[in-house]
Specification:
Elements (H helix, E strand, L loop, with lengths): L5 H6 L9 H36 L2 H17 L1 H10 L2 H24 L5 H29 L5 H29 L2 H21 L3 E3 L9 H14 L1 H22 L1 H8 L4 H25 L5 H21 L5 H29 L5 H30 L1 H19 L3 H4 L11 E3 L1
């Protein structure tokens, strides 16, 4: 084997650990810390939701908890992105993780002194969501300043795979811990893993875009600047609209899966677990595949091809006979497999095209627009499914996904979205 080709083998594990020795000491450690933090957060979130379920037995309580986690993304997301682009992004991540850890410590003390109330948990979930509204765009906007451009798609695939892995591991691990430990002791896990995320950041030099801001310039001007850029970058604008439409269709579909399993497939908790595990396993393997493969030369081609296949998975779920449940599980696996390939490719396209000093705002516009569609989709899907049947929603969603993917290949502004030119900004280590 040619020695020049040897790094390819190591890159197949993920370019996180083979992007030059400097990258190994920087992004690899940051990624590892963030991975542990994500696992701890997902585990504790599961335990808190289960505590609310056992304590209240109220659907309203769970709905409020869900809104606490969702509202900051919608309401303060764009504002958070504007500040992320103004502030030092490394410090934003450290402060966000620290504040969330501090909130968890307060909750542990409330449990210890038997002072806990349900609204305390609501506040922690709200604080966690606010921290995430700052942390996520800061992290996403920092990645292209650390990772060489040609590796961004693979790194995005790894991040997506990590999300899927967390969805598989955290719930059963949380359930197991609840069998042996009180909740306040399990909450310590979140504090410990947050520390693991903060520690590497304290010692790493993360490049910071140089951006001149007039003292009189207001945050609203920053937002208008980002919106103007989004409108100017037509391909990116269509991506945002597509992400909103995808969330409008996909989130309600999986909210309806329990009813589909129970009423159509005549299944129970085990069958529901198969469906959910198939989705999570698909995400892990899909993200890993993107990390190894890297996608087509044009990231948008990778994303739209995966969108078509994801739509096929939705349609199969909507059409499969009730006696062929295993086919539905395979179709959900296919959709889960494609999900991180879509997201990872599009995130990489944004990271390579949007100016570094504007990525915090752009990512939060993308996140806020997508999150805003969740309550809208749930409001539409419930009555729609009650009137026409649950399977119709999957069929409709699948058709729209396939059409989105196919039509994109014939729209030049989408196919050439990565050719959009912008002025490169110098960066300095902070």
């Amino acid at each position: 084997m040619d020695t020049s080709e040897k790094p390819v083998i190591r890159k197949s594990i993920g370019y996180v650990f083979d992007m030059t020795e400097k990258s190994l000491s920087k992004f690899g450690l940051i990624f590892t810390g963030q991975a542990f933090s994500l696992m701890g957060s997902r585990l504790v979130q599961f335990c808190l939701v289960w505590y609310l379920t056992l304590t209240s037995g109220s659907a309203t309580t769970l709905a409020i908890a869900s809104m606490m986690a969702l509202l900051p993304q919608i309401v303060i997301g764009p504002i958070a992105g504007a500040y992320v682009d103004r502030w030092n992004r490394k410090r934003v991540m450290i402060i966000a993780d620290t504040l969330v850890a501090f909130g968890v410590i307060l909750l542990i003390l409330l449990f210890h002194f038997n002072l806990i109330q349900i609204w305390h948990i609501y506040l922690l979930m709200l604080l966690r969501a606010i921290g995430g509204a700052f942390h996520w765009p800061a992290m996403q906007a920092s990645i292209p300043l650390i990772v060489p451009e040609k590796y961004l798609t693979r790194v995005s695939g790894l991040n997506q795979s990590l999300q899927g892995l967390a969805s598989i591991i955290a719930p059963p691990l949380g359930a197991l811990l609840l069998e042996f430990f009180p909740l306040q002791q399990i909450l310590v896990v979140d504090v410990f893993t947050a520390g693991m995320a903060i520690l590497p950041l304290l010692f790493m030099l993360i490049p910071q875009p140089i951006r001149e801001i007039k003292e009189s310039q207001k945050i609203t001007q920053d937002l208008r600047e980002a919106i103007s850029f989004a409108l100017l970058w037509k391909g990116g604008l269509i991506v945002i609209v597509g992400a909103m439409l995808g969330n409008l269709l996909a989130t309600p579909a999986f909210a309806l899966v329990p009813l589909l399993v129970k009423d159509y497939f005549n299944g129970g908790a085990i069958e529901l677990a198969y469906i959910q595990s198939a989705w999570g396993l698909g995400m892990v393997l899909g993200g890993g595949a993107l990390g190894v493969w890297g996608g087509f030369k044009r990231k948008v081609v990778t994303a739209m091809s995966a969108t078509i296949l994801m739509g096929a998975g939705f349609i199969i779920v909507g059409l499969v006979p009730s006696t062929m449940f295993i086919v539905a599980v395979a179709a959900v696996f296919l959709a889960g497999l494609m999900n991180p390939i879509i997201n990872g490719s599009l995130f990489a396209a944004v990271q390579t095209t949007v100016p570094s000093e504007m990525q915090g705002r752009y990512f939060t516009l993308l996140l806020s627009g997508s999150a805003a569609m969740t309550p809208v989709g749930l409001a539409i899907a419930g009555p729609f499914a009650d009137f026409l049947g649950i399977r119709i929603w999957f069929q409709l969603g699948g058709i729209i996904f396939i059409l989105l993917g196919l039509i994109s290949f014939f729209i030049p502004v989408i196919m050439k979205m990565e050719d959009f030119k912008y002025q490169n900004m110098e960066v300095e280590d902070q």
